[in-house]
Amino acid sequence: MSTAAALQPVAPEPVVVYPDSDGQPMADNTEQFEFIRDTQSNLDACLPHFVAGDHLWYPVKGHPEIRVAPDVYVVIGRPKGHRGSYKQFEEGDVPLTVVFEWWSPNSNFNEQLRKHQFYERHGVQEFYAWDQARNHFSAFVREGGRLEPVNADEGWTSPLLGIRFAVKDDALHMFRPDGQPFRSLAEMEKLRDAAAAERDAAMAATEKLAAKLRELGIDPATLAK
User: Tens digit of pLDDT for each residue in 75-90?
Assistant: First the structure.
């Protein structure tokens, strides 16, 4: 190589932009919105992994056109935290592990097939979908290189997450690994408020008892030894 050639400046790599939004609405209707919100909240509360809803996934570095926005997903082994989008190549090349979709009446077969093929191609291990129009639950688990359907007519438990699914009265019900049902945000808030009130009442009762003991000349600290 000549000296002149060696001194030629190296062209910088082109900047690749990975948008955090695809410009599409989060949900087609209130039922789908509640599914995304409540499923993400319950999974995030009971799992130690990264959980997101209505969030873009970029599985291939340098190709921002290869992307999809699952309704809800879990990535086992990746830490919780805020992200504008999930760029797999910045996450130890760990793909989404489990994906949840709500097929609204506006979604068509081609869209559903495209997403299934995308998840299959890029390494998703489990895929669950609820068809709002037909009140039908579908479950797929990876076998080799394919996401194969499993019989979930009598209910199904995710092998990786321990989340149980059941269809009753034409509605999808989901349960945490401890058997507790998924709850709405309002229900979760009421439970937190009730627990906080119970703790406050217990602390007040303890302090009242300690004060009474001190009146009798007894140091409450000595009773704990």
Answer: 999 999 999 999 999 9
Q: Which helix (H) or strand (E) holds 74?
A: strand 72-75
Of 107, 118, 109, residue with least CA distance to 147: 118
- Domain limits of the chain? 30-175, 187-223
Neighbours of 143 (CB within 10 A): 9
The sign one gets for the Cα dihedral 25, 31, 35, 41 is positive
**127-167 pLDDT, tens digit each:** 999 999 899 999 999 998 999 999 999 999 999 999 999 99
Residues 202, 205, 208, CA angle at the centre, nearest 5°?
150
Which class in CATH covers the domain with range 30-175?
alpha beta
Alpha helices in 18-173 (DSSP H): 30-46, 109-121
Closest CA to 82 of 60, 59, 46, 50: 50
